[in-house]
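**Backbone shape codes:**
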Amino acid sequence: MIAAASAALGRAGVASPRVDAELLAAHVLGVSRARLLTASATAPQVAEIERLVARRAERVPLQHLTGAAPFYGLELEVGPGVFVPRFETELLVEWALARLGSAGRVVDLCSGSGAIALAVATQRPDSEVYCVERSESALPWLRGNVDRLAPRVRVVEADVRDDAFLSGISGTADMVLCNPPYVPEAAPVDVEVAEHDPHEAVFAGGDGLDLMPAVARAAARLLRPGGRLAIEHDDTQGESLPALLLAAGGFDEVEDHRDLAGRPRFTTARRTGGAVAWQDGSP
């Protein structure tokens, strides 16, 4: 059964056909992948596995079929309307946890499923964490994950381009983290992304930088002097995003970081307390 499913997914162009076939079977059987060799399946379970494999062959995301996405040791509930978190974003979380002091105040912008915020909150229960998200389709997933995994995290329905959200904590945040939409509109993406991830959670104009000035402006307002900012970005933006932050003023120690494949992945900076040049959302 697994071999046939893997072959079908391979013909459909799925990047990891054997892994996906095993994960779908394990999901239906209620066992781990390691126990598949000794697991038995009933006729209805076999039929369900075949149904899910057929859907995966249509390039429906694996996480939509299982209803869950693993992230930093958590199982996040995801589905249509919310961006599926990727493994690469765990590097940004590791950077943040290594630099977050005791009882830190953290704001996660463009929170989506809540992956970054919930990873920080569960690893650092002494922290005060806020999630900011504007999408009506993503908010139910975000609230559900927060309620299930870390109810003390505060969900804020707001657009990062609005200068009024979280005004009560302006200048007091220790860290602002963000995985915003950053893919250039013309960039080729997998079918799963093009047809199933929300467009507004993935793409951001011709160069993918459309939302970055608003993110940086919000971070400058929220962070205390010495507070830290980390923004994930496209692998074509390893120079342009740091340059954008430096040109704005108000940040120093601007540094870009690479992922495990050596590609530019996220930019970090320290808030100096100085003025930021952007007033209208444009660099």
Summary: The two ends are 55 Å apart (CA to CA). The chain has eleven helices and nine strands.
